[in-house]
Amino acid sequence: KMSSPSLKTGAYILIGVGALTMLMGFLGCLGAVNEIRCLLGLYFTCLMIILLAQIAAALVIYFQKETLKDELSNIVVDLIENYDPSDEDKRNLQDAWDYVQTQIACCGWTGAKEWENNEILKNKSNAEYPCSCSNRSKDLEEGEGFCNLEDSVNGTATYADWPVHEQGCMDGVEQWLKDNLGIILGVCTGVAVIELLGMILSISLCKNIHSEDYTKVPKS
């Protein structure tokens, strides 16, 4: 209920790439140590598949970013509406969202108003608010769940009365990506270069092994 087809597909791709990377490393070491050409060729093929998969993932993210943003928005809004600190089944997901709000200093996906639709807060007339949204240090020490609004008006309050951050997490995440775009691109480029070097090395080893085998063949 807390996922979407695109995000599930992305997760499966990452799992597959991780498993393939582990297998690839084992085959590469085994092929290099024992000078087995077929394993080195398989190592080269795995590296090429991973590199192509990374390029394909980058293109999907770039051209489908609006669709992915809409799906992520639906997931977060649903999470906020059903947020319940006593629900152990969703504990990890809720803790992750609390961490995002605390670290980015944001509240809700587009703003704190989304928290007014939370089932628990509606039943309490919004006299409480999410601690991870708070701009007060004593609330951030709690870091999760709901905090009591000390100055509620006639027992009823709105999100405007909460001591929380005004910025929505969507804007905060986008700003974080912009601020760290150089680092992200640098890491991706570095990984791609390492993969290309591995492909070149495996081809060179295959050629050396082939040359050695050729020189060992007795001439008639």
Short description:
The chain is mostly helical and 220 residues long.
Q: Roughly what fraction of the amino acids lie in strands? A: under 5%
- The number of strands is 2
Mean pLDDT: 80
SS field, number of helical segments: 8
Helix-strand pattern, N to C? HHHHHEHEHH
Number of domains: 1
Helical fraction: 55-70%
Q: Could you give a short account of the major beta sheet?
A: 2 strands, antiparallel
Please tell me what the overall shape is: elongated
- The poorly predicted ranges are none
End-to-end C-alpha gap: 72 Å
Describe the oligomeric state of these chains in a short phrase: single chain
**Major β-sheet strand ordering:** 1-2
Give the C-alpha Rg.
Answer: 26 Å
* Secondary-structure class: mainly alpha
Keywords: Membrane, Transmembrane, Transmembrane helix
Membrane topology: Multi-pass membrane protein
Subcellular location: Membrane
Main location: membrane
